[in-house]
Amino acid sequence: MSGAGGTRKRWWSAVVREPILHFIVLAGVLFGGHAMFAKPPRQTIRIDRNTIEYLLRERALMTNRPITEDDRRDATETYVDEEILLREAYRRGLNETPRIRAQLIQTMRQTLVGEVPQPSEAALRTYFDATRARFERPPTISLTQVFIAAGKPVPEDLMARLKAGGDPTKAGGFDSRIGAAIRHASHAELTGLFGPDVARTIAAIDDRDWHGPIQSARGTYFVRIDDRQPASMPTFEQAATYVADEWVMTRQRERLAGEIKRLGRDYDIQHLDTGRLAGRRDP
Fold this sequence. Notes:
Elements: H1 2-16, H2 19-37, H3 49-63, H4 69-91, H5 98-113, H6 121-130, E1 140-149, H7 158-163, H8 168-171, E2 181-185, H9 187-194, H10 196-204, E3 210-215, E4 219-229, H11 236-264, E5 268-271, E6 276-280
Antiparallel strand pairs: 1-2, 1-4, 3-4, 5-6
């Protein structure tokens, strides 16, 4: 045993004295220290001439004057500043915040969709005929309202004065967000103005008398229906602008869906709640 121990001791002494081992250990310490304390490599920001020229054209359109050397210098410096801020935002994970994430997603949507060519009148007429229900005008209500803000007393004789023909603009106040009179409002618009509960109450009125008090979180309403118009179908000429907008938005949605489907082929979707692997999107 002592002979074996002596042999190991002599072997270890020889190894320790070996210069190559010293080099390896020293190199490991140096590289480790460099990895721990050295600054990360500097990133390169390339200033592309085409990008700067594009920014200058945009500036010329906004300022409506010739571009100067100061403009070029300022555009370049601004571009570099924004590149630094953008890269720092990514480095710090700010792109993962909900607001920034939404902005990036919207930018990608616009990039993928691009410009949709304007359709011909014939294409729009065909689209209008095939989707008429989209352009039907909903029923509307015109009304006059008197409003007493929450916390203020409602005059006991207010309803009597209104029914006796009193001037509603003098019988009480009115909701300044809305005005004393509303003309040709759809149910969706009434909901936006009054809230769903008051809108439903107004929609159920079937005469032209004063009704109230109608309570809401904002206060108390007294309402008189002045006119009702049933749903109606416009002609193509009346709806042409809306038809064109709807046609473009439909094409944008179709193009975006196709682009997302194409890009999705490169992704595997895993449902983390179940651990189930959804697999690649359909080609």
